[in-house]
Amino acid sequence: MPIQVYENKTFLLNTEKTSYVFKIDKNGILNHLYWGRKIDEIKDFEDSEIHRENSYHACIDKTMEECSSFGMMRYKETSIKLRYSDGVGDFRYQVTGYEVNNNCLLVTLKDIFYPFQVTLFYEVFEKENIIKRYRKAENLGESDIVLERFYSAEYGIPGTSYELINFNGTWGAEFKRYSDKINAGKKVYESLRGSTAHVANPCFMIHKDAEEDRGEVYYGALEYSGNFKIVAEATPYEYLNVLIGVSDTDFSWVLKSGDCFETPAVYCGYSGSGFAEMSHTMHRFCLEELAPKAFAEKPLRVLYNSWYATLFDVRFEEQVKLAKKAAGIGAELFVIDDGWFGNRNSDFSSLGDWYVSKVKFPEGLNPLIEEVNKLNMGFGIWIEPEMVNEDSNLYREHPDWVYQYPNRTILKGRNQYALNLTKEEVVQFMIQFIDVLLTEYKIDYIKWDMNRPVGETSVCGETPEERKEVWVKHTRNFYRVINECRKRHPEVEFEACASGGGRVDLGAMRYFDEYWPSDNVDALDRLEIQESYSYIYPAKYMRAWITDTPDGLTNRKIPVTFAMRSAMCGSLGIGNNLNTISNQEAEEIKKQVAVYKKIRNIVQFGKLYRLKSLTKDEFHAVQYQKDGSGIVFSFLINGRYGKEHYNLKFKGLCNESNYRISANETVYEKSGAYLMYHGLDIVLKGDYDSQMIEIIKDR
Ligand code: DGJ
To answer: Where are the domains of the chain?
Structure first.
């Protein structure tokens, strides 16, 4: 049974492998008791109250809580901070009830005096080993109540010296992974940019010296694409308190009579055997539960995108030339990126003017779409709906549609303004223009970009408190727009991009079929970006392209086979200028595209094993395993001292089964046990050598 309740006070949430337990303690507090490997005996948790209060140690300080409130002499970071209309600022609750509905539990906490109620929701995904959590706050009275903080979930993890893993990046350098030990005090990861952004990711991974296949990992990821915050606080009472949710910085929400506020959900899990199990659980959950259904089970097409080839200079003739070559090397989708609309010749102009440039496409887009379709490719296009340039008809007509302060010049990022999505007319404009584009043209794919953070929000709204609602309203309206577009055009594939990987999160996953993880397409840098990305997010959601060498960002020259294989680790894309690359390069790309099409089911839907990491090993290797079939990519950056043999141990095979391994045109027959425990000696030689190894299980 996924949910058990004992004597109306102890709650046990079981997945196939894990248990999560809390109870109403003698003080009426929802006391967290356990999260970890499965313990099926709920009665065992009955007498585990060990808190002893004395004059110097308040019991509440020692209590790991499911939902702590600021005030009441709690001084740790809490889940809730609110203000009643008379100034009272704590939430003294009583658990007033609970409900179990199959795999869902909801527990209601009501203030003992004020008409205010919080409901905690838990949904157990038993087979998937994931628990979904979110909360709702309700004003049941007449006077306004102001929420100043309302996170999605709180977790108590007993013990000290935990490490928190998150990412800290920037444009072109996303997903730089850090694991910081928290001996004392708080570690905070937060985005205040109105979107997920590159600076951190809305997820947490807590561990102590865990490795790929060993150690305990507690993890969770937030279904939200706006300002978020993760706080991990090592309390003096030897537990780590972890909170995740909408950031409380510049946040408030006014609950008027009858109003409620629901948090985004967090999906969390526990792995008793390291990071690989965590990633497998999350990848499967993402693809099976969150990804939009239309494309969830289909492998993504190989796309060609002309951005790096032509930048803003997209013209009919040249795009047709590129399309022919793209089809020739096996692309299945042809995408024109930025530059096809208004007078868009640089990033200074035309965002907002979403009509086809007459100069670049004198006959409109249809002739290009027809050419592309004749070549058996789908057609895709780039948009950046949330933005506007000062030099645009949209801004000239609606200067009041952007976030701005009076008495200040409006801030620009990438020479553009952010549209005020809290205005209904802006929301309708966005839905409208995307709908018109998708109705008028046979467009199969949209790359939805967002190239600057949001700012200057705090004058929208009547009262000071309402002005702090804008960040959340902005994000909710972004979801409204994309949701409506998908409803109207369910056959269109959508990719989320925000200056690269600024919108990689479980919130966007509900509406998008894939992500662009970084504008850094250097095949070496990408290996690290892709590795960190794979901790939580699945390979299918990771668009990865080969582009021209030397790379525009790093100036590094990387051989085409290595670069192709680095890109084949995700959903493959091509970004080369096919009009200028050599025949030899084009032939190699074509050859590898054909290989990729045969293996993409394994890469996009298989279990991903990080076999070797450049952060600690001599070479990089990643394995994808689907049923009996597997693919391993290995990459050597820098061969030293003539060394050319490297041992590589595979994972996820059956001990007793026999496998045919084909590597470097040699076929080996080995048992699963041999391949996993002894490993295969592979040959990698010199700089930028790579290998693709196929694993086929004998029937
Ligand atoms: C930023 C994106 O990350 C790039 O891939 C490209 O689409 C440009 N924007 C276009 O302006």
So the answer is: 302-605, 611-697
Residue 111 annotated in active site:
no
pLDDT digits (tens, 9 = 90+) for 55-98: 777 778 889 999 999 998 999 999 999 999 999 999 999 999 99
Q: What is the pTM of this model?
A: 0.97
Q: What is the pLDDT of residue 376?
A: 98
Say if CB 571 and CB 601 are below 8 A apart.
Answer: no
Report CA(330)–ligand 1 centroid distance (Å).
23
Report CA-CA distances (Å) from 565 to 352, 630, 669, 671: 38, 15, 24, 26
Q: Ligand 1 pocket by C-beta < 6 Å: which residues?
A: 307, 337-338, 382, 449, 451, 497, 499-500, 516, 519
Q: How far apart are CA 652 and CA 40, in angstroms?
A: 28
Closest CA to 201 of 180, 172, 170: 170
Residue 399 has pLDDT above 70, yes or no: yes
pLDDT digits (tens, 9 = 90+) for 633-673: 999 999 999 999 999 999 999 999 999 999 988 999 999 99
206: phi then psi, degrees, rounded to nearest 5: -115, 135
User: How far apart (Å, rounded) are the C-alpha atoms in residues 366 and 362?
Assistant: 10
Domain 302-605 has CATH 3.30.750.24: no
Q: What is the mean pLDDT of residues 490-518?
A: 98
> Which one of 61, 144, 347, 519 is the catalytic residue?
519
Residue 58: its pLDDT value, please? 77
- Cβ-contact 378, 327 below 8 angstroms: no
* Radius of gyration, alpha carbons of the chain: 27
**CATH class of the domain comprising 611-697:** mainly beta
- Helix, coil or strand: residue 281: helix
Q: Are 307 and 384 in contact (CB under 8 A)?
A: no
Residue nearest to atom 11 of ligand 1 (CA): 338
By DSSP bridging, strand 378-383 and strand 445-448 are parallel
Three-state secondary-structure class, residue 567: helix
Q: Is the peptide bond before 115 cis (omega within 30 degrees of 0)?
A: no
Tokens of 18: 């894990």
Tokens of 215: 């150690």
Q: Which of 266, 294, 269 is nearest to 280 (CA)?
A: 269
State the Cα–Cα distance between residues 81 and 118, nearest whole angstrom. Answer: 12
